[in-house]
Amino acid sequence: MENDQYYMEKAIELAKKGIGKVNPNPMVGAVIVKHGVIIGEGYHEKYGCLHAERMALDKCNEDPKDSTLYVTLEPCCHFGKTPPCTDAIIKSKIKRVVIGIKDPNELVSGKGIEILKSHGIQVDTGVLGKECLELNKKFFHYILTKTPFVLMKYAMTVDGKIGTNTGNSKWITGEEARRHVHELRNELSGIMVGIKTVLTDDPLLTCRIPEGRNPIRIICDSHLRIPLYSKIVKTAKDIPTIVATISKDYDKRKILEGFNIKVLPVRESNGRIDLNDLLIQLGTMGIDSILLEGGATLNESALSSGIVNRLNVYIAPKIFGGTISPSPIEGTGISEIEEAYLLTRNKISVIGDDILLQYDVEVK
Ligand code: AOF
Ligand code: ZN
């Protein structure tokens, strides 16, 4: 109907207020409209809190009887941390419910729609469905696979270098692009790097935007080489940190645990961490999404293990040149074109002087 998209856009905007606070649950927004006027708005504010639909109903400044509810995700019909939203919708005598996308959660998945319909409520689904799916890409992936959604990110020059011939990489992209990465750190539940990155850059891997929150730090460290004087170890008392390893060095494990680091034993694959096993374990810990920030060795392992779902490439208008200057994906590479990892273009944007290419990765 006329204006459906307009109100759904509003609901999407509201849902985004939950960025970084609702994981592993979805970001959901809801708008209640009566006689062409918004009478209530709500969104899922924080994990475990009220669902968007109930917040919108609570916030109504008028009786919602005969109104239309716009909601980005199919209303739930199960008793979870809160009672079913379908009950509240039916009780309020809302006449029509417009849904962005069906909930993939098997406890709901279509059943919410059926219950509403069986109570004589008109239900329309698929309004801005693509946008509502994009909004909760991580949630859809996590609830269907029980493993985290992995976003691989790197910044490079136009000639595909992630450092100079001395390994210098501060900074390749400009301030705005770097801020964008901090927004991702605020949004995704975990941030993952390989031990080489810790040894060469000594990073903190924190989120440095106002009101941002730190992701859980995950270090892939097959042989427990992480130095006790590294910033990661020194700050682990305050920032949740996981070191994934295949090492049997129990003394070092104990020392790291003394620094409040969770040492996670992982299955071995060709002398290294089995990333698929690691992802399963992280999934059971409730980690729904991971920002993979390299380096080049881990990037290659992640791609070849088939765990990467999305790729963000930030391209700076610079050229470094040099045969030994590093590139984003190392390892052995491929010999036949047919073996290439295939990507689907999702979005191209300009961020300051840099360009962001966003791709979905085709899982082999
Ligand atoms: C949310 N927020 O606004 C809506 C959700 O863990 P629970 O009990 O809060 O239930 C989570 C499920 O409820 C979630 O997986 C999704 O299927 C459904 N809808 N969840 O966290 C909301 N509407
Ligand atoms: Zn609900």
UniProtKB/TrEMBL annotation:
InterPro entries for this protein: APOBEC/CMP_deaminase_Zn-bd, CMP_dCMP_dom, Cytidine_deaminase-like, DHFR-like_dom_sf, Eubact_RibD, RibD_C, RibDG_C, Riboflavin_Biosynth_HTPR
Co-factor binding details: Binds 1 zinc ion.
Amino-acid positions noted as binding Zn(2+) in the UniProt annotation, renumbered to this chain: 51, 76, 85
Cofactor section: Zn(2+)
Alphabetical UniProt keywords: Hydrolase, Metal-binding, Multifunctional enzyme, NADP, Oxidoreductase, Riboflavin biosynthesis, Zinc
Entry's EC annotation: 3.5.4.26, 1.1.1.193
Database matches in PROSITE patterns: CYT_DCMP_DEAMINASES_1, CYT_DCMP_DEAMINASES_2
Domain of life, per lineage: Bacteria
GO biological process: riboflavin biosynthetic process
Positions that bind NADP(+): 155, 169, 171, 197, 201, 222, 295-301
Keyword Transcription among record annotations: no
Pathway involvement of the protein, from the record: Cofactor biosynthesis; riboflavin biosynthesis; 5-amino-6-(D-ribitylamino)uracil from GTP: step 3/4; Cofactor biosynthesis; riboflavin biosynthesis; 5-amino-6-(D-ribitylamino)uracil from GTP: step 2/4
Pfam families, A to Z: dCMP_cyt_deam_1, RibD_C
Catalytic function, reaction form: 2,5-diamino-6-hydroxy-4-(5-phosphoribosylamino)-pyrimidine + H2O + H(+) = 5-amino-6-(5-phospho-D-ribosylamino)uracil + NH4(+); 5-amino-6-(5-phospho-D-ribitylamino)uracil + NADP(+) = 5-amino-6-(5-phospho-D-ribosylamino)uracil + NADPH + H(+)
Annotated CMP/dCMP-type deaminase domain residues: 2-124
Similarity comment: family membership: In the N-terminal section; belongs to the cytidine and deoxycytidylate deaminase family. In the C-terminal section; belongs to the HTP reductase family.
NCBIfam families per record: eubact_ribD (TIGR00326), ribD_Cterm (TIGR00227)
Protein name: Riboflavin biosynthesis protein RibD
Organism: Mobilisporobacter senegalensis
